[in-house]
Amino acid sequence: MNYFERIKPHLLPASVEQKEVAEALKEWVYRGESFILDARSGTCELCGQQDLSFHFAIDNRHNQNRLLIGSECIKRFDISVQDALGIEVVGRKAHQKVDADRRELENQARLRRVLNVLVQLARKPRFEEDINVESFAMYYRKNGAFTPRQLFLILWQVEKYGVPYRKTDFKVKLRSEREKEQIAEMSPERMKLLWPAMTPAQRKRAEEARSRMNRLPALGRPAPGTLPGIIKKY
Ligand SMILES: [Zn+2]
């Protein structure tokens, strides 16, 4: 069954046009309202796709109907999109707006998950005093990433308490001299914890910082299988 057939039983009852799918689609517009869903619980009210993380609302111009759908369907069916100025666009511009909204939702969802992990950590008994959950949360909100030292402290506790988390949610900052210094001074064991949070470019920068600080010989060679790529050169 092609996509037009698939959406027909969902689209036509909500539209004024009762026969032609292509005509009915023209009645709808996405005005920038989108929502984060818990635990990929969403279903697309147009194509039936399940496990959506986000819903995008499309409204019918002629009646009061609204459908909550996946971002892919807005693009696939070239549904009109209102841009930031309230002007309706289609095609490439519409896709760009949908993609930008989706990225924003992903960032918000990630921030939510990170803050949730911090809240769970704050409730743990004998929580280490050098982790100030509130200030860490504020820092992440502002920067979208942690310093290497902050991140190590968090992940160390997260692992210790078995708090569930997504490794890729925890971004690290590695630009300033202070941040590079923190990485350079870290033991291979600590680095191992941070490794999944780093981008390939950051891993390279970390290697450079470590080699510059000339610290590695003092740390010795870690066990095989740890930190591939960092140690190889030495
Ligand atoms: Zn869909």
Helix percent reads 40-55%
The secondary structure category is alpha+beta
Hetero ligands: zinc ion
H and E string = HHEEEHEEHHHHHHH
Strand proportion:
5-15%
Please work out how many helical segments DSSP would assign: 10
Q: Number of folding domains?
A: 2
Give the N-terminus to C-terminus distance in angstroms.
Answer: 58 Å
Count of β-strands = 5
Uncertain segments: 220-234
Instruction: Kindly report the oligomeric state of this protein.
Output: single chain
Strand order of the largest sheet: 3-2-1-4-5
Largest sheet: 5 strands, mixed
User: Could you say which overall geometry the principal axes of the C-alpha atoms support?
Assistant: elongated
Radius of gyration: 24 Å
Mean pLDDT across the residues is 87
Write the layout of secondary structure elements.
Layout: H1 3-11, H2 21-25, E1 28-36, E2 54-60, E3 66-69, H3 71-76, E4 80-82, E5 88-89, H4 91-122, H5 133-143, H6 148-161, H7 177-184, H8 188-194, H9 200-212, H10 216-219
Parallel strand pairs: 1-4
Antiparallel strand pairs: 1-2, 2-3, 4-5
Helix pairs in contact: 4-5, 6-8, 7-9
List keywords for this structure.
234 residues, alpha+beta, 2 domains, five-stranded mixed sheet, 10 helices, binds zinc ion
Explained architecture:
The structure is a single chain. The chain has 234 residues and is of the alpha+beta class. It has 2 domains: 3-105, no CATH class; 124-219, no CATH class. The protein has helices spanning 3-11, 21-25, 71-76, 91-122, 133-143, 148-161, 177-184, 188-194, 200-212, 216-219, and strands spanning 28-36, 54-60, 66-69, 80-82, 88-89. A 5-stranded mixed beta sheet has the order 3-2-1-4-5. Bound molecules: zinc ion (ZN). Residues 44, 46-47, 49, 69-70, 72-73 line the site of zinc ion.
